[in-house]
Amino acid sequence: MAPAVPLLAVRGSAGTSLLRGPPQCEQHSAFSSDCGVCRCVTFSKDGTLLAWSNKNGVSVVKSSDGSSVSTFDLPKTALMEISPLNNVLVTWQPYTKTQDSPQGEANLQLFDLQSGQLIKALYQKKVDSWCPSWSEDEKICARIVNNELHFYENNDFNSIANKLHMQKVSDFALSPGGQPSKVAVYVPGTKGAPSFVRLYQYPVLGGPTAALANKSFFKADKATMQWNKKASAVLVTASTEVDKTGASYYGEQTLHYLAVNGETALVQLAKGGPIYDVAWSPSSSEFCVVYGFMPAKATVFNLKCDPVFDFGTGPRNAAYY
Predict the structure, then answer these.
(1) Please, are residues 91 and 108 in contact by the beta-carbon 8 Å criterion?
(2) Residue of 175, 163, 158 lying closest to 235 (CA atoms)
């Protein structure tokens, strides 16, 4: 159970502390503040666990009463995450080589949170996409390795259960919800060829007919992929670092829609300029886009990518349901 009163973890110059939220904001009585300089802090998805790292290592406690779950001798930890069902702690530290280990040390480590035992140590040189991504039931876990997507099953990291072989996968997004899991993968364009996003349903990843949907587009240095809650469709915000026309300091953005039934579309926006935010409705039947040079427009679209409501223009750059 998540705590009834919201908790706020604070990482600052005075160390790490835990506050209890509204109506009053006060120190959590069961949590003794840590005065050490904290590199990173994270809650588990359900809010029941709090983890932080300092020069002594990583500590994991129950957020309800501050009791210790595990401690790890990992003083160089810069990033960490707890798996959706609180079974695994994954930590990342900068990749380094020394005279003793010219190969470098395995810097991505996965631990069993209950026993504190190391499950697997892996190499992850780049900080981009450092964190493995789990399905909500932890039946599947995926990570990018040398532009391939590697899948593990049931937290067994000693054997790769499946691979997605494609030219240069640079990002991916696992679908929310239970099985069967779906995955959206982004491959950036090269030498005149377009970028593309494809959707797959695990474990069918190979062969020309494996993809559920495919959408290609130019003008993309990076892409952000957002699944809706029902895992029936993905919105892809493709963006360039530089706007060749010089109209925008923020580069150019386009919005694309892909559904698992194979339908794809370019979302037609009624005003030029940046895309500031895209939000799916909790019902998965519509989405809101905030876009255009200030004052920005905000429009709700249906799954045919037709506008169904327009909020007009105003000083805004975010949308929340």
Answers:
(1) yes
(2) 175
Backbone torsions φ then ψ of 145, nearest 5 degrees: -130, 115
pLDDT at 133: 93
The candidate with the shortest Cα–Cα distance to 70, out of 47, 89, 43, is: 89
Report how far residue 205's alpha carbon sits from residue 199's, in angstroms, rounded to the nearest whole number.
9
Q: Is the pTM of this model over 0.70?
A: yes
Q: What is the DSSP letter of 267?
A: P
Nearest to 200 by CA among 164, 168, 227, 236: 164
Task: Give the DSSP per-residue string, 155-207.
Answer: TBTTS--EEE--TT--EEEEPSSSSSPEEEEEE---TTPPEEEEEEETTB--S
Rounded CA-CA distance 211/196 in Å is 12
Q: pLDDT tens for residues 127-161?
A: 888 899 999 999 999 998 887 889 999 999 999 99
Q: Contact at 8 Å (CB) between 299 and 288?
A: yes
Whether the per-residue pLDDT at 280 is higher than 90: the answer is yes
Which pLDDT belongs to residue 25?
82
Strand partners, 298: 290
CA distance 90 to 130: 10
* 195, 247 Cβ separation under 8 angstroms: no
Neighbours of 266 (CB within 10 A): 13
Task: Tell me the chain's radius of gyration from C-alpha atoms.
Answer: 22
Residue 230 has pLDDT above 80, yes or no: yes
CA distances, 222 to each of 172, 255, 276 (Å) = 12, 12, 15
Q: Where are the beta strands (DSSP E) in 194-252?
A: 195-201, 213-217, 222-227, 233-239
Separation between Cα atoms, residue 163 and residue 122, nearest integer Å: 16
Neighbours of 30 (CB within 10 A): 14
Report yes or no: 142 and 174 within 8 Å, Cβ to Cβ.
Answer: yes
Q: Pick from 88, 78, 58: which is nearest to 127 by CA? A: 78
